[in-house]
């Protein structure tokens, strides 16, 4: 793991405020957006308590945040530059196929290898990708619609997080409320490994 100054990184006051701002925009409870005051007060108080209770206030390399995002790899140029009168080929595939990438970074700015989920029903789906060109350590998996599921959450936790977070304990992993993060197996494994 790299040793970086946390005063300007994700664990800095600015980084935390940015995270809270994003959480305020995205956090939902029973289908309605939570109030700004409630999210920031509750979230920061709970996070602050966890950091103090575990002695992690000044140990950013032990504070992790992960989130998944949807990516589409189809090329969609808005404009093409060419000489006047020259024919231009600017076609893209009609594929609207998407992929999911779960990324995890600690408050010191150290990034774990990505967890990529491609659309498919078997491991053969992964073979159509240039996996050798992916960042070192990228972990590949598949799902019928390329969505994160509870099983894939477990797979990420065991094959990416635990193998890359280091042996030092305790550590904090901040997750959103996506259903792939809310699984008994993941929590059971976490308790067993600590």
Write the layout of secondary structure elements.
Elements: H1 13-26, E1 28-29, E2 32-33, H2 36-53, E3 63-72, E4 98-106, E5 115-119, E6 139-143, H3 150-164, E7 172-174, H4 184-193
Parallel strand pairs: 3-7, 5-6
Antiparallel strand pairs: 1-2, 3-4, 4-5
Helix pairs in contact: 1-2, 3-4
Explain what you see:
- This is Jerky protein homolog-like.
- One of its GO terms (molecular function) is nucleic acid binding.
- InterPro entries: DDE_SF_endonuclease_dom.
- Residues 97-186 form the DDE-1 domain.
- It comes from Plakobranchus ocellatus.
- The protein has helices at 13-26, 36-53, 150-164, 184-193, and strands spanning 28-29, 32-33, 63-72, 98-106, 115-119, 139-143, 172-174.
- It has 194 residues and is of the alpha/beta class.
- The protein has one domain (13-27, 35-73, 93-193).
- It has a 5-stranded mixed beta sheet, covered by helices on one side. Strands 1-2 form a two-stranded antiparallel sheet.
- A hairpin with an 8-residue loop joins strand 4 (98-106) and strand 5 (115-119).
- It is globular and about 70 Å long.
- It starts with 12 loop residues before the first helix and ends with a helix.
The total count of helices amounts to: 4
What is the H/E order?
Answer: HEEHEEEEHEH
Number of strands: 7
Largest sheet composition: 5 strands, mixed
Percentage of helical residues? 25-40%
Residue fraction in strands:
15-25%
Mean pLDDT: 75
Q: What is the overall shape?
A: globular
**How many individual domains?**
1
In spatial order, strands of the major sheet run 6-5-4-3-7
Low-confidence stretches: 1-12, 26-39
SS-based class = alpha/beta
Q: Distance between the terminal alpha carbons, to the nearest Å?
A: 20 Å
Q: Supply Rg.
A: 20 Å
